[in-house]
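lol forgot to send this yesterday, sorry. struct tokens for the thing we talked abt
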């Protein structure tokens, strides 16, 4: 695969062509064609596909479409591969608008989801981060990531990729002013392209070597390299490369005062770039260079002509840098010639182009305004055509009286439709606000719920780091919760599944945590059955009082363990939720009472507790029913408790810190493309032995 130039029209690493020499920076595959990872009918996939189809001139529209995909992805919890592609698309469109800080941030976020991505796509992301850093003159960062690309290409034994990476690294050294290292890497790249018989790669290397000599004012040497590049570009019929080299040769010859020869090469560059629409941006920039050449040689009329050509083409391609420079130079010529009005007009245009170039918001505002203008024009044209057609039909069929009659009816319909549209717009606005309020409230509830759950550092202290917690809510907020407390020699742990999902379950979970804190703090010594009996009384009193007219049956299923760290014993009681003891590959289940913590036909029966000893290598598992109830597999059936017990037994000998990842992978494999059925919570503990 050819690795096409990035910034081929510009000066490569952080420079525009207006600075003088044109250099080549090679990509590593790029993102021109993405592997399809989304289903064709998937909304996220649709928005990403539409974003990729947008032309560079509508990069803001592409960014907005990718943003919609990101919102949908967040709601649907997509796999890492999908998130990687979305962040890459956001980064690519940001880079096209010149918002390099945002593009770099999105590319780096993409790396967070790249664990299962092929090394080639990693190299692409590394290249773009390096290229952006180069454009921002952050050469140390550029070097770091270009070296990462080189390492991947070396691991893959990709000679072409190694050659491209060496050329990129050389360009970084060049802009840092280390010409010795720059030449070393350019020549390494050239040697590789010579072995590959890759004429395009050789042409790029000779072009960069010529630019390096040019910067060091070795004019004859620069011309020799440029001619080598020219020969190869001619051999492969590469108009873009030829236009680039001819521009460089014209500039170098201009430095030797060989004006006629310089003009000959400049005209060649203009002739090549003018013949192809795709080279319009390059043509505009070359026009600027020719205008600058004439200006330096005192031929101001010719300079104005070519600056005007650069402006004309630059306006079409929205080349704000070229426009800003061309307007500025033409303004100076006008002022020197006494054409002050024209000079002032060009100065204002220069400021506008400069401000647009340096303001992402201006680019976005311009795009929005232009799109709105196009829409308004099309809408007005359509309305005009409809009106003419109606008048023509009315005149032919019914005369003046019918014209008045039908015009009145049409006007009434128009007014009514406008009124209805206004009402619909107001309703949509109101619904949007309500939806935002609901979303904000749910997010706030999630923050509150996360805040009251035991913090990771607290859990590590009371359990000595010998535990894991797998907590996967089905929605933003969860009806499952875990709770822990240390009292003297006792460690009390609870895992609960509250009635309902989402907000309803989250509210009950917050109440449950508060009540457990209150009950355990007042009970000495703590007993599992006593804690559940008091918890049930408080839940019924607060949520299901006898005077309530709503038979809601709010409550929770729960497993609660009181770990006596001195006596090496666990006192357990549960409401529907059991506890597992894993010892030497054997799994023992201690069953819970078959009634919830809440209203029930057995609510007057006390909970019963069971105590059992624990040994140093024992592990206990507490859980909600979400894992076992997950639908999936080949026949889309529940995972079931039996399969869950076998999965727990398979964890024998595995370090406690690695067990959560095993459970999560098994759940994802079973679930497949099915939605998550319920909140999932599993807690594994190796009790601390005092």
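and heres what i got for the seq, position by position
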């Amino acid at each position: 695969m050819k690795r096409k130039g990035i910034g081929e029209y510009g000066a490569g690493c952080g420079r525009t062509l207006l600075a003088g020499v044109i250099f080549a920076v090679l990509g590593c595959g790029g993102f021109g064609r993405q592997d399809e990872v989304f289903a064709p009918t998937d909304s996220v996939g649709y928005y990403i596909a539409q974003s990729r189809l947008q032309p560079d001139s509508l990069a803001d529209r592409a960014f907005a479409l990718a943003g919609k995909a990101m919102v949908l992805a967040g709601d649907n919890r997509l796999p890492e591969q999908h998130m990687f592609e979305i962040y890459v698309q956001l980064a690519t469109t940001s880079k096209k608008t010149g918002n390099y800080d945002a593009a770099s941030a999105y590319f780096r976020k993409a790396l967070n989801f790249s664990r299962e991505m092929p090394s080639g796509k990693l190299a692409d992301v590394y290249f773009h981060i390096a290229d952006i850093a180069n454009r921002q003159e952050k050469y140390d960062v550029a070097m770091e990531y270009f070296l990462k690309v080189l390492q991947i290409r070396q691991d893959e034994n990709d000679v072409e990729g190694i050659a491209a990476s060496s050329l990129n690294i050389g360009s970084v050294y060049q802009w840092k002013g280390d010409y010795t290292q720059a030449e070393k890497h350019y020549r390494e790249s050239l040697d590789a392209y010579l072995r590959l018989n890759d004429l395009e790669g050789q042409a790029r290397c000779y072009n960069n070597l010529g630019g390096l000599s040019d910067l060091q004012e070795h004019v004859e040497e620069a011309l020799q390299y440029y001619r080598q590049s020219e020969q190869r570009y001619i051999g492969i019929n590469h108009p873009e490369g030829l236009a680039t080299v001819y521009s460089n040769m014209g500039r170098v010859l201009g430095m030797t005062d060989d004006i006629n020869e310089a003009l000959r090469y400049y005209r060649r560059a203009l002739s090549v770039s003018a013949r192809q629409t795709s080279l319009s941006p390059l043509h505009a920039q070359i026009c600027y260079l020719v205008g600058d050449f004439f200006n330096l040689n005192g031929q101001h009329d010719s300079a104005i002509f070519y600056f005007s050509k650069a402006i004309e083409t630059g306006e079409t391609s929205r080349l704000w840098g070229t426009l800003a420079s061309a307007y500025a130079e033409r303004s100076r010529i006008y002022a020197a010639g006494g054409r002050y009005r024209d000079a002032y007009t060009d100065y204002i245009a220069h400021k506008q182009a400069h401000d647009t170039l340096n303001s992402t918001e201006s680019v976005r505002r311009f795009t929005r305004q232009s799109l709105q203008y196009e829409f308004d024009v099309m809408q007005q044209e359509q309305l005009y055509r409809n009106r003419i057609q109606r008048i023509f039909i009315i005149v032919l069929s019914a005369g003046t009286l019918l014209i008045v009659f039908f015009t009145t009816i049409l006007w009434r319909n128009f007014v009514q439709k406008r009124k209805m549209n206004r009402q619909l717009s107001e309703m949509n606005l109101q619904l949007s606000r309500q939806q935002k309020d609901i979303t904000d409230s749910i997010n706030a509830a999630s923050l509150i719920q996360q805040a009251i759950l035991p913090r990771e550092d607290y859990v590590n202290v009371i359990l000595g780091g010998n535990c894991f917690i797998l907590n996967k809510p089905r929605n933003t907020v969860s009806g499952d919760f875990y709770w822990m407390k240390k009292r003297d020699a006792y460690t009390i742990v609870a895992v609960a599944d509250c009635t309902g999902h989402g907000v309803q379950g989250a509210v009950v979970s917050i109440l449950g945590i508060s009540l457990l804190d209150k009950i355990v703090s007042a009970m000495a010594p703590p007993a599992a059955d006593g804690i559940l009996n008091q918890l049930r009384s408080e839940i019924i009193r607060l949520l299901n009082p006898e005077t309530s007219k709503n038979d809601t049956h709010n409550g929770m299923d729960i497993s609660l363990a009181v770990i006596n760290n001195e006596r090496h014993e666990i006192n357990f009681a549960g409401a529907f939720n059991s506890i597992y003891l894993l010892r030497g590959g054997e799994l023992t289940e201690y069953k819970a009472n078959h009634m919830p913590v809440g209203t029930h036909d057995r609510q007057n029966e006390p909970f019963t507790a069971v105590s059992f000893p624990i040994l140093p290598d024992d592990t206990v598992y507490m859980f909600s029913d979400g894992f076992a109830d997950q639908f999936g597999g080949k026949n889309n059936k529940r995972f079931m408790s039996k399969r869950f017990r076998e999965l727990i037994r398979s964890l024998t000998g595995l370090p406690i810190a690695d067990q959560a990842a095993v459970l999560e992978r098994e759940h994802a494999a079973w679930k497949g493309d099915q939605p998550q059925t319920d909140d999932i919570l599993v807690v594994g503990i190796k009790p601390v032995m005092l």
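Confidence is low (pLDDT under 50) at residues 1-19, 28-34, 360-378. anyway ping me if u want another try
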